[in-house]
């Protein structure tokens, strides 16, 4: 029997539907048992996260990223994903980011090469070719392929050029979250309902007798989003399991630690008002060496080799993102990351503890030279994170 669902009813009920944290056997519930989440932000685009020509091995190719994910999994990382770009060709600098992998398909392939780590695919929800029924079926299928280790990072698109690339006009900032709210509510009902239902959207999406099978293994895939605005926080509070945040005060570590407690508290309170809990995840660029002076010297060398042409090319694409309003095109932009953790292993972990105390629930880490820097992190930094109570000792048997 077909069930008709009204838009207002859908929006009211979606936030109360169960998620992967409600199933204690899910990979996401296992990840949440850690004191802080640990993720790897993959360099799936040329140049990785740093607009610098200082020699390194970082590469955007699938084989390079697959090896990184497998190394991160062996170290006990909880999740891995990269960002997604749909931009016209940018500048001609040596680290230009128009070379790179599409997130959803590459993440799907990575899920088949791993056994434990959660793989997240980034989806531009509003200007791609997506209908919610497509994504519901894709997500359920990928959840089965990965054995419950799948997630969607929902992006609404903050650059006008990306909308225009698809022949569209950029949607006003808050209206994007109205559309995303409805689309994700539809997704959640499709993943949950055992009976077909029909839907006539307030906005763009409509269907008749829709049904998705198989169902996801643990109610639904993990849902993520990145935001700093009131509209985005409201959307995240209703739907997301984890919010990818930036420091409201910019990339400076001291300013970030001062500004983050109020920001993270606001996000978590918004979720509580919906009867939900949510985790916050921040993206630090980690530059770790045996001593603080060695790490600082390496960071200075990265900046000294700045690819100014690529930086200038990226700045020509206008953005209305609220999360980045206080970020400046300075040395931190060359290095990359929401903020930079630079120093000895002890210094890095001390900074992480301070961020944890400021309400950050996890670290989605990037490196300048990924392969050796990840190995150093695993050997020298992770054991100190365990000592500091940021992580439990990892065992592949758990």
UniProtKB/TrEMBL annotation:
Residues covered by region (Disordered): 1-25
GO MF annotation, one: monooxygenase activity
Taxonomic lineage: Bacteria, Pseudomonadati, Pseudomonadota, Alphaproteobacteria, Hyphomicrobiales
Residues making up the signal peptide according to the UniProt record: none
Domain of life: Bacteria
CDD domains: Alkanesulfonate_monoxygenase
Presence of keyword rRNA-binding: no
All residue ranges annotated as the Luciferase-like domain in the record: 38-361
Swiss-Prot/TrEMBL keywords: Flavoprotein, FMN, Monooxygenase, Oxidoreductase
InterPro entries for the chain: Luciferase-like_dom (IPR011251), Luciferase-like_sf (IPR036661), SsuD_RutA_monooxygenase (IPR050172)
The protein's name: Luciferase
